[in-house]
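Subject: Sanity check before I submit

Could someone independently write out the structure tokens for this chain? I want to compare against mine line by line before I put it in a report. The sequence has 276 residues.
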Amino acid sequence: MKRITSIIMMIAIVISTKAQKIIFQKNNGTIDTYSFYQSSDKVTFDRSMYYVYINNDLHSYSTSEVTYIYFMCQDNTTGTLNGHDWVDLGLPSGTKWATCNVGATSETEYGEYYAWGETTTRDKFGVDYYDYYGSYTISSNIALSDCDVATKRWGRPWRMPSYKEVCELVNNCEFKWTTVKNINGATFIGPNGNSIFIPASGGHGPGFRNGWRSPSDQNEWGYYWTSTLYLRENGNNANSFEFSSNGVSLTRTFLGEEESQCIQCFNGLTVRPVTK
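---
Independent answer below. Compare away.
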């Protein structure tokens, strides 16, 4: 009875602390290990069972089959989800940013270019190639939907960042124009000292100088999609954010008025996913 009581007390500690590791050692000698990275990851229990919820999957153990349960503290500001690394920058919302772009395997790779709402990359971008030109059916926020390339390629709960989350990143982090392995880009340093590097991947399509032929402004400008639609007009416009050696911009001046940064959806931009 004392062993069960101590286990319950330790489980309460795990529930109240982010990013812990729990290890079950069973009577037959096998060991199962789980890491907690998401707010939904948890352990619950009743008189006869332990229940472990990891990434929306349930794992259960009867108390009679478990010999010991071990708990380990670990760094809760970095981790891996569905095979992709994330960093907690200490942002107010708790949003975690991926360390590389969709289609990339390292922080310095540009990755793949996508029209907004499409989940397959293209060699050409423009009105004639876009699946949702003039669409009034696509959602105004495509995060976690079938039109979210981050979710489709990396799996839930990865998703495209909203415009609000991009604003949070820019407004709460220090921006530095940085060169890593001969690749220029933006380093965002969070309130907790952690940082991410986002390469200046340029853009592809009619909105850029090379048009549909090839990406433009690589290593000079970074253009990244958000999940947020800005305007249903002229092929639709979605919010984006851009940066260069001159700084990072969330707004633009259009016809003498300042508005949110946006670009026509049929252009090809890169995507840096987020999760909670």
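---
OP: Matches mine. For the report I'm noting this point. DSSP finds three helices and 21 strands in the chain.
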